Amino acid sequence: MRFVWAVVAFLVAVALVGTGVAQLTVLKGPDSITSELAPADDALAFTVVDSDVLGEHPGTPTITISAGADTEVFAAYGRTADIDAWLSDTSYNRATLADADDVAEGESRIEVAAVEATGEFADTGERSGWDPRSSDLWVERMTGEGELTERLTLPDGMSMLIATDGEAPAPAEVSLAWRTDVTTPWAGPLIALGALAALVGLVFWIAGFVHLRRRRGPRRKGPKLPPTAPAPPAVEPAPESDAPESGSRGSGTRARRRLRIAAPALVVSAALLAGCSPTAWPDFAEDEAASASPSATPAPEQATPAITDAQAARIVESISSTVTRADEENDADVAGRRMSGAALEMRETAYDVRSDVNDYPVPTTIPEGPVSVLLPQANDGWPRTALVVVGEEEGEDVPTILTMTQDSPWSRYRVSYLASIGASVELPELAPAWLGAALVPPDSSFLQIAPQDLAAAYADVIGKGEDSDYAALFDLEADPFRQALADKRSATRDTFNETAEGTAEISFDEAAGDTDPVSLATFNSGAIVAVSLEDSETLRPTNEDGVIKDLAPEIEHFVGETETATGLTTTYSSELFFFVPAKASEEPIRVLGYSYGLAGSELLPE
User: How wide is the angle at C-alpha 325 spanned by C-alphas 323 and 327, nearest 5°?
Assistant: First the structure.
């Protein structure tokens, strides 16, 4: 019976090990799945691949785009809503994932169809160009010469745009390949059980031969002879090589032969077990973790931050490059590609003066340092605004703070306010970039001063100092701009008294600028508010023979005279960033940074 059980165990071992090996070989699925995305209309310039298409199969897909040896391939991904907005005035190919119920089993669910222009965003602005490489909308961009291969997974709500230069047809050869990462979780256990069954069979086989050996020889005594019977003849002792001993050695030889036959099976099973990857075993820990993990609760519906960190770095680099070129060429048109509002006005004035005064400095520049702070507006529409700090305090360049706005899906971000951050200035607590912030309305009543009234209130403080009705709201002692302006006016007055005392008079004035404020919310219901301010100084002779001479070259550029008997008014402009706390806060309003420059000069009428 022991031999029967041994044979059964060996047969079970063969079946188990064979099944396990089959799972690792012939029964294992393909290592990859490939889908071709043939365009519905190969004359269209753009192809969009939705994020759920890339997730048709588990794993991270590899996308391969081919467009010919001499053609540059462009691909980018961004928010699906942004891509739809950018393409709303043109037709394009779109790859989507069909409903599983509408597709036969085993067939690809990917469908490519031509989408007609909707014109949904026609009222937000006019398209500045078709080239997708110049757009600021994309989260990440990729290019290749003739062919582009990337491995990527897109988060929900994002899609991929494929094109060349926006004019030529989009690449027609697009394929997706998924590594299937096929798991065989029962191959390892089956091989292990097979090895155990082979071991059990071997034990039964050896036990059977041991049992046979114990059973050799007579099992009962022979019959007794009668008393009168003659004694049996003497039997010679058998030699050591008698049959019983020979039979014992034969059985031992057979046992060793069986052992040699069973041992390789155990060795093979052990080798198979050693070669099994982790995918050949069930992952109970993962299952337990999945069951123990609480289910995610969907976040409430909210707007998405306008840009990501990667976008901000790329946009700021492009802005810095464009502004640097404009500064070198004194070209206001070039600067206008990336500037607007108060920032552009200050640049235009500087370029105008530099056409006559070569050594006249340019206003605040953008350093080459990294984007150290990003506060994007949470907004799914347009216009979109972001607050950015470029550079770090420990660097050689002074950190720069700026606001930039994108007016439509087709426009680029342009800087509206630009300033240097004051020394030892601490920014208020801001929301993380992935969360974004709300744009504060100009007439907000939740701040100590509404953004639209901030510049006028601060101008009153500049003019009246502590006698201003608004003085108690501002941190006057740690105000770098107020101190710098006071020092400038004091130096101007001292110079004036040395040369024109008794023959002329000087006066100063200040007022809010004519640009709209930009305000983004901070934590604790405060806001960072950017405004513009104008201040002026007026020189007027006090007697009929008085003449104001030795005008500075930049002043002479505007008035066209080297001296004046009527006097003149010179105006300066400032871009200022404030932290304005909530109305209920006891914190004062603080100046975070500023830039200062000449705005113009004109002669007084006779």
Answer: 70
Rounded CA-CA distance 342/340 in Å is: 7
User: In terms of Cα–Cα distance, which of 368, 201, 181 is closest to 278?
Assistant: 181
Pairwise CA distance, residues 165 & 169, whole Å? 9
Cα 398 from Cα 396, distance rounded (Å) = 7
Q: Among candidates 77, 73, 78, 54, which has minimal Cα distance to 148?
A: 73
Q: Would the pTM of this model clear 0.85, i.e. be above it? A: no
pLDDT in tens, 463-506: 999 999 999 999 999 999 999 999 999 999 998 888 777 788 99
Each domain of the chain, given as residue ranges in start order, spans 1-29+182-212+260-279, 32-179, 309-603
> 211-244: string of b/e by CB count within 10 Å (b at 16+)?
ebeeeeeeeeeeeeeeeeeeeeeeeeeeeeeeee
Higher-scoring residue by pLDDT: 523, 297: 523
DSSP 272-318: HHHH--GGGS--HHHHHHHHHSPPPPPPPP-PPBS--HHHHHHHHHH
Is the Cβ–Cβ distance between 113 and 94 less than 8 Å?
A: yes
Encode pLDDT of 144-154 as tens digits. Answer: 999 999 988 88
